[in-house]
Amino acid sequence: MKNCLGIINLSESDNNMNLLCHSRPTAMLPFAGRYRLIDFTLSNMVNSGITAIGVYTGNKVRSVMDHLGSGQAWDLDRKINGMFIFTPTYDYNVAFAPKFGDLRHFHQNISFIRYAPQENLLFAKSYMLMNIDYQKAYQEFVDSDADISMIYKRVNDPENRFLGCDKIHLDENGNFESIGTNLGIDESFNLSLEMYFMKKSVYFDLLYNAIEKGTAHYLREAVFSGLDRYKVHTSEFGGSVFCINNVKNYYDANMAILNPEIASELFYKNGLILTKVKDEPSTYYKPQCTVKNAFVANGCQIDGFVENSIIFRGVKIEKGCIVRNSIIMQKTQIGQNAHLNYAILDKRSRVKEGVTLIGDPSSPFVGGKKSMISREALT
Questions:
Q1: Per DSSP, what are the bridge partners of residue 232?
Q2: Does the 4-268 domain belong in CATH 2.60.120.460?
Q3: Residue 156: what are its φ and ψ, rounded to 5°?
Q4: Strand, coil or helix: what is 252?
Q5: Does the pLDDT at position 166 exceed 80?
Q6: Bridge-partner residues for 317, per DSSP?
Q7: Calpha distance 68→76 (Å, rounded)
Q8: Which of 134, 136, 185, 378 is the most exposed place for a label (fewest CB within 10 A)?
Q9: Fold observed for domain 284-378
Q10: Can you give the residue ranges of every domain in the chain?
Q11: Closest alpha carbon to 56 in 8, 125, 4, 107
Q12: What is the mean pLDDT of residues 224-228?
């Protein structure tokens, strides 16, 4: 896949993520104790043999730059190829550029793709969480001589976890027919993973056509509006997929890794998921603590009761605490005799002594970053 350039587009809507995306994009959401969502997309590309990756950050830049750095964690700090990060710039003198949408961002950095030696492109988002080997799908794309190839998964979704996602329709011979939006009418359908292989020439045709005619503001719109002009191929993915587009789906995806089979598939099946290294001491489990079915990162101090929970690095859970069915992010402190159930606490939060936070599986309690939660504040 050295003739394929990876493009990670972070122009993802975070309207349904509540306080969790107040100061970060969806791609930077902490996941499973020590990862960020973008780690999966990056690792999938690197493990598949892609050595050049461009990351288009969107407007929330700081956390993206802090986490990705030089790309060393993914072996992308290279003299040839490697990681390239593109942040938005604002030029109000450019009359033809869209005033919103990611097409303006792509046009501002047009030379990156134009002068890249790779002839094929792989576009991916970060909120579709999976461990995928792109090599099979890429080979099918090359062999078919298609202009665009879309990756999909056949899903059974009675709970509407993928409501609002893209839905691919195939004819009786398995050939691409059309693409639309999942309204929750069909339980079983072909879910688009929003991953597209595309010839570079097709990309420029779509980009210029959308800008000149004003038919689209987003690359996704430009691709969909131009599908009838190109040969479209589809490739099916058979592994587990989690769509992180709202708080409930984020909570459910974290809880799913407490299942060893899902955790093994997600972190190891098609290559190890890599992330930014942070050296911390081992977690200290104090003599009176109890921990059951929990995913606990390093650097923690546990002196209470923890069950069915995801505990990130450096969390301190004091004596008498009960933490069940919860996600506790980095450097959070839970005071003595606090009781948490179905809660999500963002980084560096502090729960004072004796506080009770009870959410619901369909709507967990969410505490924002650096929250100070006390009895007085709750009343």
A1: 148
A2: no
A3: -115, 115
A4: helix
A5: yes
A6: 302, 334
A7: 10
A8: 185
A9: UDP N-Acetylglucosamine Acyltransferase; domain 1 (2.160.10)
A10: 4-268, 284-378
A11: 8
A12: 91
